[in-house]
Write a sequence for this structure.
């Protein structure tokens, strides 16, 4: 199939974009893409490609932008229930502690997810993934972390593996057993860290080898934050995971700077995520490494916080910056990557071009997949979006709606408008 | 037709909601609505209505919220072109003055709108109105103000009248010739005020009587703000309009407090809009009157400003508060009322219930139509939304997507999902 006549073809060719390179879109005006067997075969001008492949089936993208599908490198999309009542209660003046005392907060989602069947978990999660996909996310990282016991964590992983097969999207699984300390270990958090290191991670490997049909191991992630896991505890978990061969990720500096990003650099993690209260030292350590800083602007927006990731400093220090949705039931239930871009433009002062690169090629690097996805280059997966706008700048400028006209996944045209 | 089994039927019965009454949703669980001839005939529980009207055609709203359509009482939806390039230039570091010097800002939209044919203007505007309608706005106020000469202002009004007939929505027209001082009057702003008072308004009446098929006169609105029209100029324009019989609206306190809200109260205006930097005096004057304060939270969001309307104070003083989108190409291109609610919850600390009342029954009052729309009560228009959520609290909590499953306008089911 030949997609042709795109007003702008955003190729993002040349690999992940460090520092001031962020936002080099590689725009081809009146561009075209040849797709064969689910892969991108040729990229160029419309006239040349139509001349060279006159008999190819055609898709006319006139007056529309064609770009790579969004890669969402940080979500908690697999859960059961909602916390809308807490959202209203907080606005009506209830404090966080009052809500916790009534059984609210993350542990209420843990409880609902533990009590749910695999089918319920899959049904509710699939709706969210479908919404993300319709809004342009073709690859989506999904974390566990609403189980906090092996059985439920594996149920979440099973959901992710099943939903990866059942839906048009690609899912990237991450084990986040260290999302919070479960109530059973309230008085003995180090005991929970021991459990993860000595029991959950090794058992996960056995389970994975039986259940995941030869897939490489999932990421292991830790929530390194005051009130969750300390720097030492986080290091113990990630070091154990590394020894067992897991690739690593980390949540850091959402509310507090503990030095987790520098530690993640030392351990060779793929990404450090949230990075709001990150110190200049941590930013410099990240920038000297291959690690991607993943900013989650939906979270401060969701919480109406004033502080966002220091994007200018990350870029100025020549680091890799990606953005993601952080989709979760507590702080930010937003399934639309375009809305995340709109927030990033306003509150992190990214240009639309920078935000697009951060949500595609750099996001692909954050999940270790930049050789397969995140740009429109020969040999990559044909995961493309046709937008209902003629100029990419309208992403970010316009907000709250869906500017995706058509999603093309593995070369298949999937048009949810019809 | 009988809409039945709604998990929550949000009636908003009892008229516009002052002060602490804001947010009284009048929820009927397992609710039903009987619609005949485009009007609401009965409202009640599902069992009773099914028993009383067993042969009525049925619409099953199981697991879904049914609520009145959103009334958007403040938009500038009719224009040509976009200012996405300015949005990007500002983020890349250009100043407002540099952009103005390059012909940008509101006057670039004025120039594009002057140069457009009626057909172009209608085609581009219709797309936006359709997007608003799909996201739940069944009645939409639309202002002129990108003409700033009689000919183009009338072209905008003609578009509004035509689009009102051509689309499923109801449009409420407003004349905003005093949106900005046009370049021709740069050195003589009072001359432009004279032109509006002595020539444009009287000629508008003649045109209206010939063109508007017996419709009552449109609103007249003024942008009362430093850099636009002074308090004196605004008063001259609104007083002239009042003498000629026009109903009044005013833009005040977006950036600066000039006392416009109190002046609008004295003149008996229907609403004062923006109301961000509004003084305590002005808030008290509004609260003692019948005027509705219309907050436009998309605008500070669009501009990444920190100040939003002082909702708590307006409510605490027992005033009427409504919210609206302010859809326009300069500061906020967002067509989704649900996103405006999400912003209002986070930055004005409205609860979802308060935001829903502010965007329906109180918004209807801001355009003088609360006897016809804005609630689900017998005798009102059957303008309803069926939401794809079981609990109204999810509005505001979830953001950036479209939670409207089905729009019902004048009793007709219009489902844009299919």
């Amino acid at each position: 199939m030949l997609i042709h006549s795109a007003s702008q073809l955003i190729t993002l060719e040349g690999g992940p974009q460090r520092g001031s390179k962020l936002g080099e879109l590689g725009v081809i005006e009146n561009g075209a893409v040849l797709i064969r067997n689910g892969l991108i075969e040729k990229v160029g001008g419309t006239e040349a490609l139509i001349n060279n492949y006159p008999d190819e089936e055609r898709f006319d993208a006139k007056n529309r932008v064609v770009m790579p599908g969004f890669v969402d490198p940080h979500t908690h999309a697999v859960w059961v229930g909602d916390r809308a009542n807490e959202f209203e209660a907080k606005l009506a003046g209830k404090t966080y502690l009052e809500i916790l005392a009534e059984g609210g907060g993350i542990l209420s989602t843990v409880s609902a997810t533990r009590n749910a069947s695999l089918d319920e978990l899959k049904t509710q999660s699939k709706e969210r993934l479908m919404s993300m996909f319709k809004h342009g996310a073709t690859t989506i990282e999904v974390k566990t972390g609403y189980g906090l016991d092996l059985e439920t964590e594996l149920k979440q992983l099973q959901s992710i593996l099943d939903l990866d097969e059942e839906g048009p999207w690609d899912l990237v699984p991450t084990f986040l057993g260290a999302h919070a300390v479960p109530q059973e270990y309230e008085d003995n958090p180090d005991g929970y860290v021991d459990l993860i290191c000595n029991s959950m991670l090794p058992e996960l490997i056995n389970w994975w080898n039986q259940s995941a049909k030869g897939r490489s191991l999932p990421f292991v992630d830790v929530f390194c934050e005051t009130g969750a896991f300390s720097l030492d505890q986080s290091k113990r978990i990630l070091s154990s995971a590394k020894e067992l061969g897991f690739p690593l990720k980390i949540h850091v500096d959402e509310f507090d700077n503990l030095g987790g990003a520098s530690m993640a650099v030392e351990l060779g993690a793929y990404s450090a995520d949230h990075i709001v209260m990150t110190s200049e030292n941590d930013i410099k350590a990240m920038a000297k490494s291959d690690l991607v800083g993943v900013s989650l602007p939906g979270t401060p927006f969701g919480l109406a916080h004033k502080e966002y990731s220091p994007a200018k400093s990350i870029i100025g220090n020549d680091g890799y910056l990606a953005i993601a949705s952080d989709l979760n039931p507590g702080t930010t239930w937003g399934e639309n990557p375009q809305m995340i871009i709109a927030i990033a433009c306003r509150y992190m002062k990214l240009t639309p071009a920078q935000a697009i690169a951060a949500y595609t090629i750099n996001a692909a690097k954050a999940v270790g997949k930049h050789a397969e996805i995140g740009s429109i280059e020969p040999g990559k997966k044909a995961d493309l979006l046709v937008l209902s706008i003629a100029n990419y700048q309208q992403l970010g400028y316009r907000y709250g709606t869906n500017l995706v006209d058509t999603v093309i996944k593995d070369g298949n045209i999937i048009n949810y408008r019809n």
Remarks:
- The longest helix of chain B spans residues 189-211.
